[in-house]
Amino acid sequence: MNTAWNNIGPVATADERREDLLVASCLAAAAQGETSAYYDLGVAYSTGSHGVDCDLIEAHKWFNLAAVGGHCEAQMCRADISDEMTAREVAEAQRRAREWLSASARKAA
Questions:
Q1: Which residue has the higher pLDDT, 3 or 11?
Q2: What is the largest CA-CA distance in the chain?
Q3: What pTM does this model have?
Q4: Which residues lie closer than 8 Å to 60 by C-beta, 6 or more apart?
Q5: Does residue 100 register a pLDDT over 60?
Q6: Quick check: 11 pLDDT over 60?
Q7: Phi/psi class of residue 51: alpha, beta or left (left: φ > 0; alpha: ψ in -120 to 50)?
Q8: Cβ neighbours, 10 Å, residue 87
Q9: Do residues 63 and 46 touch, judged by C-beta distance below 8 A?
Q10: Residue in 92, 95, 91, 90 with CA at minimum distance from that of residue 78
């Protein structure tokens, strides 16, 4: 991250604020069940872009949610990153995806 410093500590640059907003807007859209937002979050976490660290468990979770929603490219991405993960990591990603769906269902009720 490119962070400028001033007398009171680090100050986020315009690019960092834009990246934070992108992830925040994707999370908001994901909360509404938008499959493309799930996919975009998977891409961000799988590549460590848009202000998030690379996290294959989170990436798998988001690709899994998108794939369940019928996103074909997400299915391929999920398969690709699964090859780089342990069985325990895949199981954790699946648990997180179920947790997300369960929390979303409770909000909708």
A1: 11
A2: 50
A3: 0.80
A4: 42, 78, 81, 82, 85, 89, 90, 93, 94, 97
A5: yes
A6: no
A7: left
A8: 8
A9: yes
A10: 90
Q: Own/partner pairs for 49-56, CB < 8 Å, 24+ apart? A: 50/19, 50/22, 50/23, 51/1, 51/16, 51/19, 51/20, 51/22, 51/23, 52/23, 56/81, 56/84, 56/85, 56/89, 56/93
CA angle (5, 14, 11) in 5-degree steps: 20
- Given this model, what pLDDT does residue 10 score? 47
Q: Residue 105 is which amino acid?
A: A
C-beta of residue 3 within 8 angstroms of C-beta of residue 10: yes
CB of 5 closer than 8 Å to CB of 11: yes
Q: What is the pLDDT of residues 41-85, one digit of tens each?
A: 999 999 999 889 999 999 999 999 999 999 999 999 999 999 999
For residue 4, name the pLDDT band (cuts at 50, 70, 90): very low
